[in-house]
Amino acid sequence: MSHLASIFLYPIKSLDAITVNQAKVLPSGALWQDREFAIVDAQGRFVNGKRNAKVHLLRSSWDVNKKTICLQIQGTGEKTAFDIESDRSELQSWLSKYFGFAVTLVKNSTTGFPDDNIASGPTVISTATLETVATWFPGISVTEMRQRLRSNLEINGVPPFWEDRLFANEGEVVKFQIGEVIFEGINPCQRCIVPTRDSLTGESYPNFQKVFTENRRESLPNWVNSSRFNHFYRLSVNTKIPASEAGKILQMGDKIKLL
């Protein structure tokens, strides 16, 4: 039976995920602690994998309860821990030295910092989709593909590309439910340069976008609303969670149903 198999949160936008057993829905429709923090430069622009490949070499581990983060540069043994609040200046100095320019860590506990401000809820993908897409790229494991695509919610017990049922025509939504939480599916997620790179080293996979696009076009189920694909470099589904769902809890193992 279809169920919620994994929940991934990204406490600092663009850095490593944490896996949790449950997640609380905020009044904004975001998940508590997902992309609550972001690194920005002096112009207020996000420092992320799209704009700076050094992000890929930055390992982070997060203590949810203590609100501490441990940072490590890939390939080194040195780890440095910071309290996200009381050590903010030291953390910003460490990050500025690493990137080679001044950065600030900003916080938004209301909405977080979503990639899509219209479809600002968690992204959804299926395990079978990840398994299928990984077969398009020799040498890329399912785990690595998961880390490259950085979705929030992973659904198991469904066929590949099942999540393509969760969007309709432009301007329309598809309502579905995970456990007690009602979602609105908005659109297929447009991918950026990040999935083309190794999640740990930043090394580019040759012709990744071309291979992806060709296979995505060929494997698109015949029942999919193809009008939402102005190009085929799209995968996973962007969502919104209505304000009525605030305070509800998503749990691993929750059942999924279309409404």
3D structure, described in words:
- It comes from Floridaenema evergladense BLCC-F167.
- This is MOSC domain-containing protein.
- InterPro entries: MoCF_Sase_C, MOCOS_middle.
- There is one protein chain.
- Helix content is 16%, strand content 29%.
- With 259 residues, it is of the alpha+beta class.
- The protein has two domains: 175 residues, Beta Barrel (M1 Pyruvate Kinase, Domain 3), CATH 2.40.33; 71 residues, no CATH class.
- β1 and β2 form a beta hairpin.
- The two termini are 16 Å apart.
The main sheet comes to: 4 strands, mixed
- List the total number of helices: 4
Low-confidence stretches: none
Q: What is the number of E strands?
A: 15
Per-chain topology:
Blueprint: E1 3-9, E2 18-20, E3 22-24, E4 37-41, E5 58-63, E6 68-73, E7 79-83, H1 88-99, E8 103-107, E9 124-126, H2 127-135, H3 142-149, E10 153-156, E11 174-178, E12 181-190, H4 208-219, E13 234-240, E14 249-251, E15 256-258
Parallel strand pairs: 9-10
Antiparallel strand pairs: 1-2, 1-10, 3-14, 4-8, 5-6, 6-7, 11-12, 11-15, 12-13
Pfam families: MOSC, MOSC_N
InterPro entries: MoCF_Sase_C, MOCOS_middle
Protein name: MOSC domain-containing protein
